[in-house]
Amino acid sequence: MTFSLPFQIMASTTMGELCLRPVSPEQEGFFSRIIQIIEDTYPDDWRSWEIQDLSYSDLFGEKISSRIEAKLRFAIPTAEMAMAYCPNDASLSEKKYRLIKRKLLEWPLGRALLYSPHSIMEKIHDKSYEDFIKTVKLLKPRLTARDEASTSECTLRKRGSTSPISLRGNKTPRYESSEPNRVPVTDSFMAKMMDLLTKQWTSDNNVSPKTPSPGDLARYLINLYNVKKLAPRTILVHKSAISTFTKPCNTSPLSDHPLVKKTIKAILLKNPPKRCSYIWNVADLVNWMGQRKIEDSSLFQISQHVATLLLLATGRRVHDLTLLHIDAEHCQITREQIIFWPSFGSKTDNANYRQSGWCLSKSDKTTFDLCYWIPKLINKSEQRRKADPTLTNLFITTRNRVKAASRSVITGWLRLILKDAKIKGSPGSFRSAVATDNWVNKNLDIDEVLRKGNWRSSSTFLKHYFKEVEARTRNVIANQAMSDLFFTI
Fold it and tell me: What is the pTM of this model?
């Protein structure tokens, strides 16, 4: 018996060819302004990028699901996109933002500008992946959330900012708002930043603030250190700001030039950072948590407890907790174990590597049993999730507006835990404390330590995160090691 597998041959095209396809007259103005934004912000060769010519139905079927629609993001600066849609009103309400996304999805070039969900972007940019993802990274500061773009725009109108500046040197936009004070927030910020940082120095040294050379930037950084007496970390902020806002789409940013790198290295060597040689003992926190009573009616305390247990078990980054979802695609729950498949977005994730799945086993002690607390957290947050049915994140805010808990929110929960336990350390120190404990106290193989913590390099762990453990200040109760409950898959 033979079987024939249906397959579809996907046609290739270029970004430039999509620009030439006819559009409806009522959308022609909006789409032409979007093309101009791309001209001003993308590399010069963007029209030659080869992509897969996929229709709406190829990507989403007959109708796009609300869950996928909520995740759609376009590689177009948010503030500029709002102005392109309605030059007379640059505000960006939720309804207006949804309309803009739907119109862009109907446009072949609009679909080619999708960078989220990542799986869809990979289908479209099969051959131009590296060029497109590099451009997205460079534009990331300008790809703001809808509410941030709308709030920033209102702030600018109150301040009366009036002078738009293009990020591409001598290129200027072909359209202007009928109200001169409605300009993209990033352009105004760039003008103020460059004026604040370099005005006096560039005028004294005859340097162009818009197109400095690597040598100009190196001399400016030396001036900040020798004359202005700024701290090395402050100098790094200046370097990053100038590198970001001068020719952001250059294939080689100013900050990557060897001369700039050697200058920064010399400044840091003059003031080497003080390294903390001790890390807190994991056993102290485990002991304190074993004696802590958690209110079953408090979503805050349950969320706080689960976040702490996950970091103690895995030793992952705090940011990785924001990548956990409870939908069937990313989570499988049984009484004996829970498996998470984190979404794309970890620090180490790229086109060729994704962090491992999380397999959490049942514990004999209820206090440390994630197979008990995670379902309890999901059930307790069920009522709040009704305000946004598309919300699938494991951690959500416990008060005010219902949304996914950000890294800063979770960090706040962990900071309170450490404070109540009288442990001196930041939320980010969980990673160092757990990895050090796994290697020193639990005698795990170095490869197993790296695998559990999603480390890519042993040298990074040994150089920056492995530290001497502080002497225990309290007796440690007998408990099942948290790291024994976690396995990578």
Answer: 0.49
